[in-house]
Write a sequence for this structure.
């Protein structure tokens, strides 16, 4: 592949894309104080600009261009019909400050999406406000804090987090001024119940549980875990990032979760990566409905013929607003579309296929790659990217090599409890041929690791930018655009 | 992997070197190897602070992960190695020497006795392989 030049390197003085017509008014020079000598703009013709950005866009890897088995991110195909519905003018051209009577359709969609999401997980009510999964977590833990404070139990200052939980959970708890205590996993990848019991005292505020966890394992003792926390007076927060394994099969509220966030951009096929935007609705059990962020959409009255009127209502003890206006409305339209297109039976099939695909891959790889916890997995699984007889090969080398085969690397070095972890989540939308291709690539890479390790150390070999210097990338952060020295013009 | 016999260790991979009533603290060769390239060192404490066993000493971040470092013993901090702030890679190259993190005046010398010797620590790391 040819080397990619920056648009500044393609710049040539005096070249331009647009020629303005002669102005009808006298020209006035910009005032001196607004002239910036350090501001360098590239000078290219229109075709060069078009080619430059078109070529750059083609360097991107997305689920529309290739397999993307990024564990815990559920990079499933986003059906195009979602884009059709989100662009319907009634949805796309309304304003969040319009009077409710002029946007009854939009409010009805939000109302029904609240209901559908509540039904899927067995909750009483759902807020659609949070703008991402971690924002949903923040919402949930704020609800826990307010609920406990209102009960007068201000001594409860501790949140327990299993070592197989999502990485954002400790940050969320710390943001709410809770002390974070890690609970270790047992030999089967479940929460160690003795370690859990030992921490369940009267300072316990709650537990943040990811189920299936980041090992891709269903928490086998989940009901017992929730009971232990509840008996000690704590609440259980469920990280719903891995809901793609449970749709139509298990309801988190029924196994003891009190609060849970959904990731519409994972499970419900709204765009993910490239800016999303994300959307992280939060569901709660009945005794926490009054604490949800407001407003929610409710039916506030019905006319004589029984037609409902939808409006915005703020719960009694609401923690307040989590987002300007109503959240990511465009994503709600897409998720609602996805739910309707599948129906209850279809959603169950989504999870069944997601789990089947993951188990198929795990089974095909298990004789070549070490599986730390050999159990039937859910929608994802973790393998170790290391072999005793290939001591210089690390998970990172394997990930980098996968790029040469047009596959996005899996989640690498997470979860931390697995050495050289590679977390693979194929999702339900990949067909058998793609899964078999992935297996073929993984077996080839394992062979290279033993016979030609230098290939893996040098990978990727086919990308325009080769192996990144990750130390430099982390240490020498350049977070704003710096003009190339030679492009800065002398006055 | 290097496990110097004149040091004491914890199962969380801190080491200490006791000289008189002063202890020097850092992270082990095993820990730096597991973390891989270290890009940041941050301290949670300053010189003069009184700290207890198990308190957070700081955070070490590598290209793979961020890990907290804990005080294996309590006492009063007498020196903080600020060189690591600018040159965190020293933790990779010389974990028991230039990359010492903190020196403390021991609060309770008996706390040192409960720590692991080199052989016991090495056995512990083997169990985690």
């Amino acid at each position: 592949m040819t080397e990619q030049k920056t648009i500044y390197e393609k710049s040539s003085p005096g070249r331009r894309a647009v020629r303005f017509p002669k102005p009808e008014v006298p020209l006035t020079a910009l005032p001196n104080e607004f002239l910036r000598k350090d501001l360098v703009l590239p000078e290219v013709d229109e075709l060069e600009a078009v080619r430059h950005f078109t070529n750059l866009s083609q360097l991107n890897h997305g689920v529309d261009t290739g397999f993307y088995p990024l564990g815990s991110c559920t990079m499933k195909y986003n059906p195009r019909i979602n884009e059709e519905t989100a662009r319907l003018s009634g949805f796309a051209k309304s304003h969040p400050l319009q009077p409710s009577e002029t946007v009854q359709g939009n409010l009805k969609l939000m109302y029904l999406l609240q209901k559908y999401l509540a039904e899927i997980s067995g909750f009483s009510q759902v807020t659609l406000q949070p703008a991402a999964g971690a924002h949903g977590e923040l919402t949930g833990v704020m609800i826990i804090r307010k609920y406990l404070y209102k009960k007068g139990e201000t001594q409860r200052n501790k949140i327990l987090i299993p070592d197989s939980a999502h990485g954002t959970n400790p940050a969320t708890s710390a943001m709410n001024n809770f002390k974070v205590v890690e609970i270790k996993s047992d030999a089967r990848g479940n929460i160690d119940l003795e370690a859990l019991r030992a921490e369940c005292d009267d300072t316990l505020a709650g537990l943040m549980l990811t189920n299936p966890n980041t090992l891709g394992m269903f928490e086998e003792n989940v009901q017992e875990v929730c009971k232990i926390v509840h008996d000690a007076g704590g609440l259980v927060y469920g990280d719903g990032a891995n809901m793609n394994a449970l749709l139509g099969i298990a309801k988190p509220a029924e196994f003891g979760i009190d609060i849970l966030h959904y990731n519409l951009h994972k499970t419900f096929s709204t765009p993910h990566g490239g800016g999303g935007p994300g959307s992280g609705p939060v569901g709660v059990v009945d005794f926490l409905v009054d604490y949800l962020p407001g407003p929610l959409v409710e039916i506030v009255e019905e006319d004589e013929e029984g037609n409902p009127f939808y409006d915005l209502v703020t719960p009694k003890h609401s923690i307040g607003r989590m987002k300007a206006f109503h959240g990511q409305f465009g994503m709600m339209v897409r998720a609602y579309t996805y739910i309707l297109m599948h129906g209850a039976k279809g959603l169950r099939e989504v999870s069944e296929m997601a789990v089947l695909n993951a188990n198929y891959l795990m089974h095909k790889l298990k004789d070549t790659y070490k599986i730390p916890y050999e159990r039937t997995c859910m929608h994802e699984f973790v393998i170790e990217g290391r072999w005793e007889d290939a001591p210089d090969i690390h998970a990172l080398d394997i990930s980098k090599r996968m790029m040469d085969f047009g596959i996005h690397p899996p989640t690498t070095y997470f979860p931390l409890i697995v050495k050289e972890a590679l977390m693979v989540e194929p999702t339900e939308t990949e067909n058998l041929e793609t899964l078999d291709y992935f297996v073929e690539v993984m077996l080839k890479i394992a062979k290279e690791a033993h016979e030609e390790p230098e290939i893996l150390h040098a990978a990727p070999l086919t990308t325009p930018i080769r192996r990144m210097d990750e130390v430099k990338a982390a240490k020498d952060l350049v977070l704003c655009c710096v003009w190339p020295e030679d492009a800065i013009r002398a006055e | 992997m290097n496990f110097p016999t004149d040091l004491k260790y914890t199962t969380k991979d801190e080491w200490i070197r006791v000289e008189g009533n002063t202890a020097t603290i850092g992270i082990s060769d095993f820990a730096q190897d597991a973390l891989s390239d270290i890009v940041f060192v941050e301290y949670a404490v300053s010189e003069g602070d009184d700290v207890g066993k198990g308190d957070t000493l700081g955070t070490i971040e590598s290209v793979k992960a961020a890990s907290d470092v804990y005080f294996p013993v309590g006492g009063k901090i007498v020196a903080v190695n600020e060189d690591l702030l600018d040159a965190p890679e020293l933790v990779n190259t010389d974990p028991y020497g230039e990359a010492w993190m903190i020196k403390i005046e021991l609060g309770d010398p008996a706390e040192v006795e409960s720590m692991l010797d080199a052989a016991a620590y090495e056995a512990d790391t083997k169990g985690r392989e």
